[in-house]
Write a structure and sequence with these properties.
Blueprint (H helix, E strand, L loop, with lengths): L14 E6 L4 E6 L2 H7 L3 H11 L13 E5 L13 E6 L6 E6 L3 H6 L5 E5 L6 E5 L4 E5 L8 H12 L4 E4 L2 H4 L7 E3 L3 E3 L4 H7 L2 E6 L10 H15 L11 H11 L10 H11 L5 H7 L11 H4 L2 H4 L4 H5 L2 E5 L9 E6 L6 E5 L3 H6 L9 H14 L3 H16 L18 H13 L3 H5 L3 H8 L9 E2 L2 E2 L10 H7 L12 H7 L17 H4 L6 H17 L14 H9 L5 H21 L4 H4 L24 H12 L10 H6 L3 H7 L6
Parallel strand pairs: 1-6, 7-12
Antiparallel strand pairs: 1-2, 3-4, 3-6, 4-5, 7-8, 9-10, 9-12, 10-11, 13-14, 14-15, 16-17
Helix pairs in contact: 2-25, 7-24, 8-10, 15-17, 23-25, 23-27
Length: about 675
């Protein structure tokens, strides 16, 4: 590790590590400047390495899979909102490309070890963890850590290696190869989606401990500092908006939801203040009432099945009444997180990250459960297990509907009366899923596999996209989400593109090829699929830019014009225009999509969502009444904008060549192809 003690002064180290777990050998790979010019960093490193090194058709839980941890190009350079890392690998849930993103403090600790990424190959014959700092990297025995939950594992390793050490680890879910398993850091922040925690478990890799202290140099430190200072000043504007928060917004939403349609714009300045005060729990009540949240396993209506009197019980004010202190990830000026504690009742919790909106919805409105203490308990359970709360909640909803329709009996549930809103039964079922016990073993790999095992018509209630449960935003409220859910390389994902994000990010101000965001306030315009693909494709590319930088998605939505491109130029010394950065981001996106096509997957066919997600049949009442999204026309528009063939999914040869992806082009179009 010693050869990297001096940074190249470009925001990146130019080095990644390959860890062969089978042979217990660690090998560095040096990357030249041209690599970063093409793929930037973060997820871009992962996309290129996996494309080059993974053979199609391998078992995602076999030793041939590669699991990567990548830091962002901007991580630890003095920029803001840029402390996130991305885990990559072949997803055992979708069978295709997998990535999961997480904040906390692990990413800068890893980058301070003098590397930009780690890649794990093979399988260790016994449980191990990797320890690395700025001087060495070594595999260590982890048998004593087996069976520990994520927080116990982290506490043990930090006690062993010092407070500077940051830990990314799996819990029981990953060890038991649950396809709902994620990778945890900072006592409850999860890289959750796609089952990559199971990949880590399949390799007998319990944890990665990063304890580096080298700071990467940047080309123009003064410019980076000036950009950050100006951005902070813009963020501080609008403090007088606090009077609009909370019940006034929620109450307004509730009044107009009953009229059959609501699209409440979230001006970035207002969204910033809401996030700062409440975090994402601010969405819980108004999203349930307004039609953004799925209700009753995607078959219910908010104001009828889970009205405001119930949704507010798990809403913003109630959640933060348990908050002990604010929490923010590395380099975050907003600090939308919080640490809560439960001091009374059957389940005392000394310290826990407060549940995010996705968790509150997945175990609240999706299940008709308004018992907040039970959701706190479940949040603690899945965090300690290292389990994706979105997919776990969706799986419980599937089980409840199977029980309500007599597909599952009380004997099948182990005596649990698995009715809507029965918080005790819901909590007990989550415990079974974590332990892979009886029915929990059937459910621990998600709704697609569970429906295949249970049969008897249960497939109707299995709401997923290509094997991954849909996130907690209803496309019948915002049709942009349907593209994220089934046309992206990572299906079921909500943090990529939507009409709301186009409003908040104002891409037409950032990129010359982005025309003005379409007006979306009227019902007719909102559900017209014509010409939507172009803007949604730009949103997808922008998300790749964000992940290459190691930036937080919320940072793009809070106004103040997040200066990603300016920061990257200051860090690297490049003079890229925003359009040139967008081309690099498109290159990364093409690699991820091409990975799926090489695996024989075409998202428009293989990730097709459960009909409930797009309103087939349509709901009779509520904000989404009589709404059926024309997903085929919308997907075709997106495919054309992406330069993908709608029948095969293959990227067009001409576009691959323009992006400098000749190796990908040759994979799909041999030289003798006409």
């Amino acid at each position: 590790m010693n050869e990297t003690k001096k940074s190249v002064g470009k925001g990146y180290w130019g080095k990644i590590l390959h860890v062969d777990l089978t042979t217990a050998t660690i090998s560095p790979e040096l990357l030249d400047d041209s690599f970063y010019l093409q793929y930037l960093g973060g997820i871009g490193i992962g996309a290129k390495v996996l494309w080059d090194r993974l053979k199609p058709g391998i078992d995602p839980l076999g030793p041939e899979n590669i699991l990567g941890f990548t830091t962002g190009l901007l991580t630890d350079t003095g920029s803001l909102f840029t402390g996130r890392f991305t885990v990559v690998g072949k997803s055992p849930a979708s069978g295709g490309w997998g990535d999961a993103n997480c904040g906390g403090y692990f990413s800068p600790a890893l980058k301070r070890c003098g590397v930009d990424a780690l890649f794990f190959h093979g399988k260790s014959p016994k449980p191990v963890y990797l320890y690395l700092d700025h001087e060495k990297a070594e595999l260590k025995e982890a048998s004593d850590l087996q069976g520990l939950d994520t927080i116990e594992t982290e506490d043990t390793l930090r006690e062993r290696h010092g407070k500077r050490a940051q830990v990314a680890c799996i819990g029981p879910a990953g060890e038991k190869l649950s396809l709902l398993a994620g990778i945890s850091t900072d006592r409850g922040r999860l890289a959750a989606r796609g089952g990559l925690g199971a990949v880590m478990g399949s390799k007998n890799l319990k944890a990665v401990v990063a304890a580096g202290k080298m700071r990467v140099s940047v080309q123009d430190r003064a410019a980076a500092k000036e950009i950050s200072s100006a951005f902070r000043k813009r963020l501080d504007k609008g403090k007088n908006l606090d009077r609009f928060l909370g019940d006034k917004i929620i109450g307004f939403t509730g009044k107009i939801a009953r009229n059959g349609f609501v699209y409440l714009r979230q001006p970035a300045l207002l969204w910033r203040r809401i996030l700062k005060k409440y975090g994402t729990s601010s969405l819980t009540a108004m999203s349930a009432e307004g039609g953004d949240s799925p209700i009753k396993n995607w078959g219910g209506i908010g104001y009828r099945d889970f009205p405001l009197a119930r949704s507010q019980k798990i809403g913003a004010e109630t959640v933060i009444s348990f908050q002990e202190k604010k929490y923010g990830c590395y380099s975050c000026p907003l600090r939308c997180g919080g640490i809560v504690s439960i001091k009374q009742g059957p389940h005392i919790i000394q310290e826990m990250h407060k549940p995010e909106y996705e968790t509150l919805c997945a175990f609240g409105s999706l299940l008709l459960n308004d018992d907040l203490l039970s959701i706190f308990r479940i949040n603690d359970l899945v965090n300690r297990a290292g389990m994706d709360s979105i997919s776990c909640g969706g799986t419980v909803a599937f089980a409840i509907e199977c029980y309500e329709n007599s597909i599952l009996s009380k004997e099948d549930t182990g005596g649990l009366d698995l009715r809507w809103g029965n918080s005790e039964a819901i909590t007990a079922l989550v415990e079974k899923i974590v332990r892979r016990e009886s029915l929990g073993d059937i459910l621990a790999d998600g709704v697609k596999r569970a429906a295949e095992r249970i049969g008897n018509g249960s497939e109707e209630f299995a709401v997923h996209c290509g094997g991954i449960e849909a996130a907690m935003h209803d496309p019948k409220f915002d049709p942009g989400f349907i593209i994220s859910y089934f046309c992206e390389p990572t299906p079921g994902r909500h943090t990529i593109s939507s009409y709301q994000y186009l409003d908040l990010q104002e891409l037409h101000k950032k990129f010359s090829r982005a025309h003005k965001t379409p007006a979306l306030t009227t019902r007719k315009k909102r559900f017209d699929p014509t010409g939507r693909g172009e803007m949604l494709s730009l949103d997808s590319f922008y998300k790749m830019l964000v992940d290459c930088a190691g930036a937080c998605f919320f940072g793009t939505q809070v106004g103040a014009e997040l200066p990603l491109c300016e920061w990257m130029n200051a860090a690297t010394g490049w003079r890229f225009t925003p359009e040139e950065y967008l081309v690099a981001a498109e290159r990364v996106h093409k690699l991820r999509h091409s990975f799926n096509v090489r695996e024989g997957l075409n998202p428009i066919r293989d990730f097709r969502p459960n009909p409930r997600l797009y309103g087939n049949p349509p709901l009779e009442k509520g904000p989404a009444r009589k709404v059926t999204i024309d997903i085929d026309t919308l997907a075709e528009s997106y495919y054309r904008a992406m330069h993908w063939d709608t029948k095969t999914g293959k990227p067009r040869r001409e576009r691959l060549e323009e992006l400098g992806l000749g190796d990908v082009s040759r994979e799909f179009y041999p030289p003798d192809t006409p």
